[in-house]
Every structure is written in structure tokens, then in C-alpha cells.
UniProtKB/TrEMBL annotation:
Residues 83-117 are annotated as: Disordered. Catalytic subunit of the guanine nucleotide exchange factor (GEF) (eEF1B subcomplex) of the eukaryotic elongation factor 1 complex (eEF1). Stimulates the exchange of GDP for GTP on elongation factor 1A (eEF1A), probably by displacing GDP from the nucleotide binding pocket in eEF1A. It comes from Callorhinchus milii. Pfam families: EF-1_beta_acid, EF1_GNE. GO terms for molecular function: guanyl-nucleotide exchange factor activity; translation elongation factor activity. This is Elongation factor 1-beta. The gene is eef1b2.
Amino acid sequence: MGFGDLKSVSGLKVLNEYLADRSYIEGYVPSQADIAVFEALGSPPSADLYHALRWFNHIRSYESTKTSLPGIKKALSNYGPANVEDSTPAAQDDDDDDIDLFGSDEEEESEESKKMKEARLAQYEAKKSKKPALIAKSCILLDVKPWDDETDMSKLEECVRTVVMDGLVWGSSKLVAVGYGIKKLQIQCVVEDDKVGTDHLEEAITAFEDLVQSVDVAAFNKV
């Protein structure tokens, strides 16, 4: 019995044909027979050998429970078509499991490896703690409208710039005509989002009620 040489194209074709009408190497449930052949195979069959590839991917899903599958793992010569002699290199039949093709995560890390990981983690945390926190800021363009064309716009701007808040920086400004000889003050500012809200800003400016009729947010952009 056997599949020929599972490391050769001919052996893989025998396996593919064998699995054409079978879900497993033996019986109707995954067993140690599947694990024995899987480990001898070593790598996935090519896409054109779709029966073997389907079986390979299915057995690989039993990574964490392979030792609990039923049956006893035997030599490859105990599996496969009766008219085919097994010729897979003997090294592949070694049951010592020196190489785990499932990539088990249960192997213990060496003490040196653990110490290296801990040291790198400590370095990362120290570097991260020194990195300045990113401060969220916004650029706001305000329209400050006077009561009429007789309002002293220079005085109005002067009053606006007297508004001082932690996280507020005033920028450039200009006067924009709105009609009937009336001009509004357009003024920019940059604020720290966690410290200055637009509601508080508008409230502080409209407090100059003799000069300011209203305040509108003309533009709001994250910096």
C-alpha cells in the first residue's frame, strides 16, 4: 500500500485520485491517518490537484486538536491504494515529530527570548511616553457684524482681540462690505478643541453689545 513518492508529482496525483471520492484517508472522520499523510506531504498540493488540496486545507484546520484525533499514527505504507507501493523518503515517516508542520504555538519560549521581548517592550513604552501628545486644533473664521454703518470698526476689532482664552490665538482680519455702507469684521483664530468651543467664543465677543450685533462661524477647519 502507499501513494508512491508524495514528494513527486506522480505521488501527488495518486493522492488526488485517491481522495476524489473520499473525505479522509480512512473512514468518515479525520484521524491520525490523515495526520500521518499530511505531515509526510509537507506543503499544499497545487491548485490543479483540487481533491488533495481540499483535503490538505481541511486537515490543516485541526491544528490545535490533532493529537486528540482518533486512531494510531502508522507508517505511510499502511495507507493508500493497495496496488501502489510507498516510496516516500523514510525521513518523512519519522514519528518523533521533530518538525511540527502545524506550527504549534505551544512550544515554550526560551528564557533569553522572553527577556529580549520584555526589554524591547520596555524600550517601546519608554519611547512612547516621551512622545508629545497630539493636540487637536481648529482654524475658525468668524464674521463679526456691527449694528450699523456708524460703528467704529477699529474699536470693534480691538475689543474682539481682547478676548483671551487658554488655547486661543487670534490671526489675520479684514473688513468686508455687506451693503448700505455697513462692513463686517472677518477675523481668523486657531483654537485647541479641548479648551475653546465656538459657543464660548461667540458669547465672549457678543458681550461687547454696544458694538457687536452678532457673530457667525464662516469657516471651520481642522488643523
